[in-house]
C-alpha cells in the first residue's frame, strides 16, 4: 500500500507539474470572501502531498478542494461549516492544526507539561544542593588566622 | 577498478573502526598507555580509508561511470560538473558515506589535537567515536552500498532530481551533516566522562570548540536549507515544519542549549550533570533525525529513497546509542560532583531558564513530529500536525527565550542585579515597545503576533548593542579609549554579542512576514500589477535553452512610483531527462526585503498567470542565521579555547627555565 502511495505520489508530482498553486482563475470576485477562502485553505492539508497546505500545493486534488471551498463560501456557508464538511469527508487528517481531543491531549499538553517537569526538576535540584557555602567554624577561623599570619611573616 | 578499491577501503575502515573501539577502551581499563595510543592511529587510519572510499565515489560520479548503480540512478552525462559532485550526496547511499566521512574527520581531529586531555579520557572518547563509525559503516556495507555495480551498464544516467540541481544543494547537506555529526564528538566525550566518572572545566574547555563548530555549521546548514526551499519551491515559504526540517531543528535547539550550558560549566564549574545530559540529547536527536530522514518512515518534500530494511537497521543503531548512553547516564551521573553555586537571579540562572525553554521547545517539536506516526501505529487514526500547531507552541516558547536573551546577557555571573539590568536595558525596552505598538497600529491589529515578534526582535537587537556599549564605554570616556576598550574585549564576548544580535535579526525577518503583501493575477504585457509598494510589469515572454533543460522566461520590470528599481526573470524550467518542471522564481532584493514572483505556464496569447509577493525584511532571516554562525566562529577563535594552548605554554615555560 505504502509503495503504491509512493508511486501515485511520484506520478502526481510529474503529471501535476505544469499546473500551479492558487491560479488566477480560481480567485473570487469579492476580496473579503477570497480572504476567507485563503485563510481556510492555509489550514488544510493537501493529502497527496507531504506537509503542504492546499493553498501552497499545485496538486490537482488541492486545486479541486480550493475550488470546492470557494463554491461553498459563495453559497454562503460559514468557515466552520466548510471545515466540518471537509472533515466529515476526509477525516481529521485534512486539518493542519489537530483538534483538541482525548487522543491529542498529550500532544497539545506536551509543551506545558515539559516546561512544568523542567521547572520541578530545577527546584528539586536547588533544594538538594547546599544553599550557600557553610560559615566557617571557630576552629576553621583559628586555622585561617594562623595560616594568614604565617604568610605575612 | 577504482570503484572496487573504494569498496575495499570501506571494508578496511570497518575493521579500523572496530580496532578503534576495542583496543583503546581495553587499554583504558588496564591502564596500558600503548594500547590506549592505538586509538589515535586507528582513528587516523579509519579517516584515511573512508576518505579514499569517498574519493572513489566522487571520481565515479565525475567520470559518469554508469556501470555503478548509484551513478546511473543519480547522475547524467549532461549535468554540470558542480552537480555531478553534489549528486554524490544527493542520494541515500552517497549521503550516508558523507555522514561517515564527517564522523571520521571529527575522530581524526580528536586524535590530532587531543594532547591536552588525560590519556584515558581521550582513549575512551575515541573508542565511543569508533563504535559510532563501526555501526554506520556496517549499515552502509550491509544495506546501502554506494559501490554496487550494474550490468549491463546503461548508456545514459537517470539524472539527478532537478529540484536538487541547485547551488543550495551543493552546500546545504554537507554543512548540515557537519553540524549533525559534529555533536557526535560531544556525545563521545560525554560518554567517556561518564565511564571515567569524572568531569571538570578542562573537559568543557576541550569540548566547547567542537560544540561551537558543530553548532555554527548546523546553523548555517539550516539557514542555507531554508533559503534553498525559499527560492526553489516557488511559493516563497522558508520553513514548513516538515519532519525533515524538524529533524535538523531538534539537534540545533539541543545544541544551542548545550553551547550555553557548557559555557557555564567552563566558567563556573556548575551544571555538570545537565551539560552531560544535553550532550547526549543533542547527538541522540542527530541520530533520530538520521532515522527519520533515512528510514523512509516519512516521505516528504525532500525527495529521498526509502527501504524498510534500512529503517530497522538505523532504528537498532538509534536504540543502541540512545539507550546505552542514557543507561550509562542513569548509573554514573549521580556520582559526578556538583560545584559552582549561584543565586536564581544571575547569568547562570538566566541560562538555566534559556535551557529550559529551548529543551521544552525541542520536546514539543519531537512530540509534534513523532505523534502522528505513533498514533497511526497505535490506533490506526491519521492526524496531521502542521505549521499552525508548531507556530503556536514553539512560537510562544522561542519568543520568550528571545525576550530573556538580552536580560540574561547583561546579568552578572553568580549573583545579578535585576534592577541595574532593567536600567541598562531601558532604551532597548522602550525601542521594542514602540516598534510593537507601531507595528500593531500599522497592521490594524490583524497579526498581533507579528507586531509582538517585531518588538521583541528590536529589544534583542538593541539589547545586544547596549551590552557592547556598556562594556566598552561609560559617560565621559573619550571615543578613542572606548574603541580601544571595545577591541580589548574577549572574542568570546564579541561572538556571543554577535550571535544574540543574529537572533534578533532572524526574528525581525520572521516578523516581517506579517507585514508583507501578495497578489495572484494573470499578467498581460505592459499592464502594471501592484504588490505592496511596487508595481510590476511583464515585458515579454520568451524561450531559453540550458545545458539539460529548456525554460519559458517572463522578464519583468519592478517600479516604485514610476522609477525602475529592479528587473527580474521568473521562469518555468523543464528538465528533459526526467520530464519534470520546476518553477524558477524571479527575485529582487530591495532594502533587506524581496519582491518574489513565480509564474505558471504562459498562455498561447502571451498572458502569464503569476503569484507576486512583497516580503519586507525577509533576507534578515538568513542574514541573522549567518550572524549567529559567525558569532559561534568568533567565540571559537577566542584565545583561551585554542587547542593545546596550555601545553605549548607549559613547554615554553620549561624551555625558559632551562635557559
What does the secondary structure layout of this molecule look like, with pairings?
The complex is a heterodimer of chains A (153) and B (659).
Chain A (H helix, E strand, L loop, with lengths): L1 H14 L15 H12 L17 H15 L4 H12 L14 H24 L9 H15 L1
Helix pairs in contact in A: 2-3
Chain B lengths: L1 H29 L2 H30 L6 H6 L6 H6 L5 H22 L5 H25 L23 H30 L4 H32 L10 H26 L3 H24 L12 H25 L14 H33 L7 H24 L7 H7 L1 H17 L5 H25 L6 H10 L2 H22 L4 E7 L5 E3 L2 E5 L3 E4 L3 E5 L2 E5 L2 E6 L2 E5 L4 E5 L1 E5 L2 E7 L8 E8 L3 H18 L8 H14 L1
Antiparallel strand pairs in B: 1-12, 2-3, 3-6, 4-5, 5-8, 6-7, 8-9, 10-11, 11-12
Explain the overall architecture.
- The complex is a heterodimer of chains A (153) and B (659).
- By secondary structure, chain A is mostly helical.
- Chain A folds into 2 domains: 2-94, Helicase, Ruva Protein, domain 3, CATH 1.10.8; 102-152, no CATH class.
- Chain A contains 6 helices and no strands.
- Chain A has helices at residues 2-15, 31-42, 60-74, 79-90, 105-128, 138-152.
- In chain A, helix 2 (31-42) packs across helix 3.
- Chain A is rod-shaped and about 95 Å long.
- Mean pLDDT of chain A is 77; it is low at 1-19.
- With 659 residues, chain B is of the alpha+beta class.
- Chain B has 4 domains: 1-165, Four Helix Bundle (Hemerythrin (Met), subunit A) (Up-down Bundle), CATH 1.20.120; 201-417, no CATH class; 425-514, no CATH class; 517-615.
- Chain B contains 20 helices and 12 strands.
- In chain B, strands 1-12-11-10 form a 4-stranded antiparallel β-sheet, with no helix packed on it. A 4-stranded antiparallel β-sheet of chain B has the order 2-3-6-7, with no helix packed on it.
- In chain B, a hairpin with an 8-residue loop joins strand 11 (593-599) and strand 12.
- The longest helix of chain B has 33 residues, at 347-379.
- At the A-B interface, helix 1 and helix 5 of A face helix 12, helix 13, strand 1, strand 9 and strand 12 of B.
